[in-house]
Structures are given as C-alpha cells and as structure tokens.
C-alpha cells in the first residue's frame, strides 16, 4: 500500500483511539489543564445558597470554599481560578453529569435515581421536611398535620383523610418532596389538590394569599422565606418534621479521586469545628443531635 496513504490512515486511527481517553478524563485532570474549578449552586435556596448582589452566598457556598481551598492545595495550583455558576434545580444534576460544573455545592438529596447520573459527597446537612400554614387555617388540618390524630383503632385512617381532604397543598416541582406528598395522598386515599411551584418563595406566597392551605418544604428554608414575607405574622411553620434526610454535594459519577478530596476537606471541617462555625453563622445554633451528626458524618483519617 502507498506509504503516503498510510500516514493519514495511521493518524486517523491514533485520533480515534485517543477519543475514549479524552472522554474519560477525570474532573481533576480537567481542573489541572484549565487551571479552573467551576462550582455550581442553586441561587434561590437561602440560607443554603443564594445570589446577593450578583455574588453567591450561603452555608453551602462557604463549605464549597473550604473544598476549593483543599483542592487548590492538593493539586498545587496556587493561582487556581474558582468560578461559580448558578444553575436551575431541574438542570443541576445534568450539569454535573455533563461536566458543565465540577461540583454542585447546594445540598442535594442522594437517591438511587440521581446516583445513576452522579456521585455524592459526605452529607453536609440533615434536611427536615415541614409544613407552612396560615394562622387561620382549619384546626382540623393543623391537628392532622401535627400528628395529633391517634394512629390506632379502626377509624384513625378515616379521621386523617377527613382532616386532609378537600384542601390545596403546594410543593416545589420535582424532587423528593413532591414524590413524598403524592405517595401520602395515594396511601391514605386523600382527595385533595396538589399544586407545584418553581421555588420556595412562590410556595410561601401561595399560602400567604390563601391559595394553598399548606406548603411543604425543608424546615429552615421555610423559616427563611417566611421571615422575608410581608405577611409573616399571619403564617407559621409547624413543629412536626415528617421526614429526615441527609443531603450532600453532587460530583461526577465514578470520579473517586475528586470525591476523596471533597470528603477529606469536609471531614477536616467537621473535625476542626469550622463546619460547626459555618452552620452557626448561616443556620443558627446547632442542636445536640446536629452536633452528634457532625461527628458521625466525618470520616476518620
């Protein structure tokens, strides 16, 4: 075969063989080559992550700063450029999976479905699902939502159903909260209206306007958005926590080198007390159970 013809063929084969290697390049290799680290965040879930004056801020952002500093040190990249990119919740997992962002800072619930696309760090917070209602809401509804109906005897399910039926509930569209509420409706056979909103602020406003009887979301999120609402005195967050769930940062799937650096940084922050200080600054004084979880979540050296 003509030698001149072989050269472009060999070059083509070499390029084709290199494609899988390029496609499988790890996040850290990409960070090294670009000298930049892109941190994604949800801009509307204060106090965890929000946008203030065009700049990201919040509990998760401060934790990501700790992680970024550790990556910078471990990779020996003194002039590493750390960039923040706001993403919509519905697109956040896809952005991590596609490599558009290197780490999703905002706390994300780890589910089997999400793990098909991404991996997760150590937990950075334990979320608690709660409900926001108006002060003038039906007492029967409040009793059921607070769990004051006896869960025994042949009539308890019917009592719960009557208390929950014919009301309007709101949840943020997509995710675990919507799935949980729909599951409760199906299990109890509750005939009620469920509306979805784009963000917590809209859910709180629906309750304020009397267009929803209860809005279900993470407890601290509810308290934060309630405090900002001009009708805050007419609403309250119920004490009951329906579900607890650890939430974490999302990372590229099967990228164990990156995950090790992230988990090391978080573990060091847990052990040093820095994470507790960040928690206190953004979320208030941690309770005893929260402090116990700080110790549980940190991995030993």
From TrEMBL:
Q: Which SUPFAM superfamilies match?
A: Periplasmic binding protein-like II (SSF53850)
For this UniProt entry, what's an example GO CC term? Answer: extracellular region
Q: Which UniProt keywords apply?
A: Signal, Transport
Q: Which Pfam families does the UniProt entry name for this protein? A: SBP_bac_3
Which residue ranges does UniProt annotate as crossing the membrane?
none
Coiled-coil annotation reads none
What are its GO biological-process terms? amino acid transport
Which stretch is the leader sequence? 1-25
Record domain Solute-binding protein family 3/N-terminal: where = 36-286
CDD domains named in the record: PBP2_GltI_DEBP
Enumerate the InterPro entries for this protein: Bact_solute-bind_prot3, Solute-binding_3/MltF_N
Superkingdom of origin organism: Bacteria
**Cross-referenced PANTHER family:** ABC TRANSPORTER GLUTAMINE-BINDING PROTEIN GLNH (PTHR30085:SF6), AMINO ACID ABC TRANSPORTER PERMEASE (PTHR30085)
| Similarity annotation | Belongs to the bacterial solute-binding protein 3 family.
**What is the protein named?**
Amino acid ABC transporter substrate-binding protein, PAAT family
């Amino acid at each position: 075969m003509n030698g001149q013809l072989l050269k472009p063929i060999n070059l083509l084969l070499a390029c084709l063989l290199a494609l899988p290697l390029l496609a499988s390049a790890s996040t850290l290799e990409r960070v090294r080559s670009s000298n930049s680290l892109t941190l994604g965040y949800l801009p509307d879930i204060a106090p965890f992550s929000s946008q203030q004056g065009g700049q990201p801020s919040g509990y998760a952002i401060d934790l990501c700063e700790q992680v970024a500093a550790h990556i910078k040190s471990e990779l020996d990249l003194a002039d590493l450029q750390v960039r923040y990119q706001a993403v919509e919740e519905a697109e956040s997992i896809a952005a991590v999976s596609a490599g558009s962002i290197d780490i999703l800072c905002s706390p994300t619930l780890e589910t089997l479905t999400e793990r098909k696309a991404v991996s997760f760090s150590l937990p950075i917070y334990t979320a608690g699902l709660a409900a926001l209602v108006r002060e003038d809401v039906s007492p029967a509804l409040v009793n059921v939502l607070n769990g004051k109906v006896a869960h025994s005897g042949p009539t308890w399910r019917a009592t719960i159903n009557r208390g929950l039926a014919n009301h309007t509930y709101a949840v943020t569209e997509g995710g675990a909260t919507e799935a949980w509420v729909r599951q409760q409706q199906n299990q109890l056979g509750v005939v009620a209206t469920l509306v979805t909103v784009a963000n917590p602020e809209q859910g709180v406003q629906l309750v304020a306007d009397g267009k929803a009887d209860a809005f279900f979301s993470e407890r601290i999120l509810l308290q934060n958005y309630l405090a900002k609402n001009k009708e805050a005195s007419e609403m309250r967050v119920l004490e009951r926590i329906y579900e607890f769930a650890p939430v974490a940062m999302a990372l590229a799937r099967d990228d164990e080198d990156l995950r090790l650096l992230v988990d090391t940084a978080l573990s060091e922050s847990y052990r040093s007390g820095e994470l507790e200080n960040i928690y206190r600054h953004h979320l208030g004084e941690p309770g005893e159970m929260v402090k116990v979880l700080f110790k549980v979540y940190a991995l030993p050296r």
